[in-house]
Amino acid sequence: MTHMRTLVNMLRSRALLVSAVAMIALVVVYGGLATFLAGHVASNVRVDGIAIGGMSPREATDTLQRVLASRALKPMQLTAASRSVDLQPGAAGLEIDMGATVAGLTGFTVNPVKMWAHMTGDESQSFTLRVDRAKLTAAVTKAAGTLDRPVKEGSITFLDGRATTVPPVTGTQLKVRETTDAVASGWPHQQVIKAITTVTHPKVSAAEIARATKELAVPAMSAPVTFRVGRSTVTLQPRQYGAALSTTADASGRLQLAVDTTTLTAALRAADPGIENQPVDATVRLSAGRPQVVPAVAGTRFDGPAMSALFRAALTSSPRTVTLTLVPATPKVTSATAHGWQITEVISTYQTQFPVNPPRTNNIKIAVLKLNGTLIRPGGQFSLNGTLGKRTPEKGYMKAPVIYGGRLVSDYGGGVSQVSTTTFNAAFFAGVPINEHTAHSFYIARYPEGREATVSWPDVDQKWTNDTGFGILIQANVTGNAITVTLWGTKTRDIEAVKGPRRNIVQPKVIVDPKPGCVPQLPTPGFDVTVSQIFRKKGAQVKTVRYNSHYIPEDTVTCTAPPVP
């Protein structure tokens, strides 16, 4: 019995051992299969239609790279309305991540169901995309510059005697965030991607412009219009009145004709200068050497609103006739205003002498004639350049010496600086605030030291403001070799000039110039000087203003070139 029991135990142990060995073998085989499957893509798997089933990750990655390379590099087309822009995927931050795509299709598992599916499954997968959102947004934003189309309102113009229509254009504006999302989700399956846009419609439709053209614009320009004003009759052709016409839209987008009465009035005046009696402002002029108030004159003018309504009605009806009534027109400056300026006495006067030089004297006389009679209203600013304008041969100016770059040269308007200096001193002794003035580069002996002003078009000017509370009238004349400038108004202060000593004296050099056109110079030292302007009212000093002037030396210049014939 004992032997029998021992034998049974031995057989049982052997069976257990065999079972254990078989189990271990099965685990080894099962584990090996799992390991093999983990290193290969599942059977019959396709990525975007590309078969990679059963391949190792490297083989699958190489296959995808080879097939998809051209697609990943091909530009996509972003479209909006009738426009399109190519986007390069790489530059736009779009990339197919081959490694991540394959990594998602492999992996170790001991689940028998998953392993069976891995060996027998048939599935389609999408590849993994890598999107650089910042780059893609920047690319779409740049594309918007080409794809956007601003809304354009249509119009009807009235030029050259006919009506011309410009059709409206609907505007589109790319929505960057939404379009970026569309590109990121559509690529690379879609090579043409429609941009997400907002649409802006014109305020006036194309149909309304067509209607207004037919019913208003074409009839308006179809024939002349006759204007009757009192005893005057003026007929204007479409080409004459067309510039006064335009169209305006009401709240509903419906067009109607509009009239610029200023332009229409100008056309009527051009056709008949006496059709209106323009009002004349009062002013102050010199008469027999003294200021006199020239009274204002009332006039007549067109009634703008009535003119507009009657003209618009005549443009689309028959007969094409407008009967206008003139209304009184009041001058802007009344006689009472001009008398209130109280230009009654001399408030300052100054005179300078000039040397004999016919071209220079010619220029002085032209400038003085233009300056004479200039009126500066209370609070107004005087500008010598603004009064004289550019000195040109068309105005009669000739070439004469001027200072340029520290040397005398010849240019149109030479000598006008003497008019400037004379006017400056008249303003100085009137006590008006000097807003802008520039001393000559070097000192000229015929002018008072530190109390002179050059002028040059357009940037070197003389400006001062009339702060007297009254009007100022400039009287300027040339007698012999002297310029006199007198300021008329109401005297409110007395002015005294006190000149300080010269300082920082610099001696001139000697220059021998062989170039044609050379202008000889005599030597004058350079220096600095201060002039004090002392204000007095009723004998008491109330204010002092100081003017500092710097002069460079006037070098000796000897010209050796033959005279220009």
Characterize the structure shown:
By secondary structure, this protein is an alpha+beta fold. Helix content is 31%, strand content 31%. The strands form 14 sheets. A 4-stranded antiparallel β-sheet has the order 22-30-29-23. Strands 31, 32, 34 and 35 form a 4-stranded antiparallel β-sheet that branches. It has a 3-stranded mixed β-sheet with strand order 2-1-6, with helices on one face. The longest helix is centred in the N-terminal third of the chain and has 37 residues, at 2-38.
Briefly say what this structure is.
This protein is an alpha+beta fold. Among the domains are: 1-30; 207-281 and 292-329, Ubiquitin-like (UB roll); 341-559, no CATH class.
SSE order and pairing:
Layout (H helix, E strand, L loop, with lengths): L1 H37 L7 E2 L2 E2 L5 H17 L2 E5 L2 E5 L6 E4 H6 L8 H9 L3 E2 L2 E4 L1 H15 L7 E5 L2 E5 L4 E4 L1 H11 L5 E3 L2 E4 L5 H15 L4 E5 L2 E5 L1 H4 L3 E5 L5 E5 L1 H11 L11 E5 L2 E5 L4 E4 L1 H12 L5 E4 L1 E4 L5 H6 L4 E9 L4 H14 L3 E2 L4 E3 H5 L10 E6 L2 E6 L3 H15 L3 E3 L26 E3 L6 E8 L2 E8 L4 E6 L3 E4 L3 E4 L12 E12 L2 E12 L4 E4 L6
Parallel strand pairs: 1-6, 3-11, 13-20, 33-36
Antiparallel strand pairs: 1-2, 3-4, 5-7, 8-9, 10-12, 13-14, 15-16, 17-18, 19-21, 22-30, 23-29, 24-28, 25-26, 27-28, 29-30, 31-34, 32-34, 34-35
